[in-house]
Amino acid sequence: MKNKSGIVNSMNSKKVIAASLAISLLFAFTGCGNSSDSATTENTKQEAASATDAGGSAASDEKLDDLYQQENRIFADHKNVWDKVFALMSKNTNDNAMNENYADFLTNTIESNKDSFSEEEYDTLSKDIETIRGIEEEIAKLEKEIAASDSSGNTSSGSAESTGVFRGFKGKDLDGNDVDDSLFAQNKVTVVNFWFSGCKPCVEELSKLNELNDKLKEMGGEVVGINTDTLDDNQDGIKEAKEILKAQGASYKNLTFDSDSTVGKYAGDIMAFPTTVLVDKDGNIVGEPFMGGIDDPSNYEQLMEQIQNIL
Amino acid sequence: MKSNKNFLVRFRGWIQAAATLLTNLHIPNLFKGKLYQGKAKTICVPGLNCYSCPAATGACPIGAFQAVVGSSKFKFTYYITGFFILLGVLLGRFICGFLCPFGWFQDLLHKIPGKKLSTAKLKPLRYLKYLILAVFVILLPALVTNSLGMGDPFFCKYICPQGVLEGAIPLSLVNSGIRAALGHLFTFKFAILVLVILLSILFYRPFCKWICPLGAVYSLFNRVSFLKLQVDSEKCVGCQKCSHACKMDVNVTDTPNHPECIRCGACMKVCPTNAICYHYGFSNKKQADNK
């Protein structure tokens, strides 16, 4: 009886060892998975933000849109015959087809259904495809450029929402005056500092941020604070934030806004406070967010370096 | 009122695993590097489990205690203190043995084969954890404050290896901003974690015995907790096998409800006459519990 239970016990402990080994193995793998994963999550957040010339990347985005429009115009101009092509397309689509050059893909579709088209139609299509081929080449080139300017080289994710966090901004300062994205447009660079009232390192860097604001004003920039306790016009939070700002001698602008707005969601996703980001004229976040107080000299230097790059 | 000792003791490893999982439910967050910030985060978990672990279900009671004591608005936290008293009375250090993720972590580390050393001669170090509780969790956060009355969570900030293991490491793996912000403090605390890991392989649960302020809190309640160990003096033959089996260096027959007992049940397993068992409820008069 006793022996038996002894065996069961040792079996159990073996099971536990096996399980723990399995778990640690799992962790080892997820550890590796993490780092590659991390690269992509980071990219989606920071996409194009790390481009030193944010204005340039915005321009290439516009150009890209224009090129897509040109293609669509071609399809619209010869709508009848292209609709015929598109009707044939769905049946031919397979995985390989999706990977080939779009112009080749169109050609293949037409070639394999040559009988369905009159000679005139076929000519129109061929000409159009050559134009499209030219446009496609330009698109490819542009996409490469955008990818290159994005230091992380990731173009697959739709990112405008995460960098253009302050585009179309609407909110108030803590005195209740309306503030919109013209605040960012009037500055060469806006330093936005996220904080909350219970955060000691945040509160302790406020006076340093105020100094930075004075300095930046001369250079055509500005510091703006966002206290996450004040969102949604929370009056108690605003009152407390104002007291702290006053006590720390910080007189620069602090903003409040709806927590379910784009910037509200961005603020809600921040896990490390204080976090400081740089925002350009168009309301795009430029570069990586800074974590930690700028009362630390090395953090301050890093931040100033980035600011200099933008100015 | 006897609990089924076989069940609890036999499946202790699994119970610990389940408790760790329940304490860290939001596993996908580990890959996103985001913290769960929902309503449940306002509730404390029983074990030592970092609030800043992306997967964490609730708040660490020790961390929450320091946060409130160190805030400018409050001087004392009735909620967390009440929580300590409630859990201390209901379960005591059973939490350490069965529910604490960091306890389980050390148990698993101790299973790594190699030389094992006894902590019996290091008993005075046990009192260190009470000092850490008093100084780093209560006094420093409450007294060392800036001009606005805000203190630091000293234990979390300067000591806790669980914070590095569950918070700093997973977050910095996934989040490059946090990775960039790591400094000397991280290096220092990472060294503490490595030290605790190495010691855990050599000794049984060194962190629980010597450092853990949460264990210190629960240990104060071990004698008055509803959950107790009972030694049936009629069945006991006085072989002292239990005390030799006890990895927390408790003399089981003399002091079954010693502050250091984590209720792991190792003594029950070895008792030749099944004289030791769990007892839940008010103290049984015929037992000579507290000597």
Automatic annotation (TrEMBL), chain A:
Ranges where the Thioredoxin domain occurs: 160-309
Start and end residues of each stretch annotated as Disordered: 37-59
Keywords of the record: Coiled coil, Signal
One example GO MF annotation: oxidoreductase activity
Biased composition (Low complexity): 48-59
Signal peptide: 1-30
Comp. bias (Polar residues): 37-47
UniProt-listed Pfam families: Redoxin
Top-level taxonomic group: Bacteria
Recorded coiled-coil stretches: 125-152
Protein name: TlpA family protein disulfide reductase
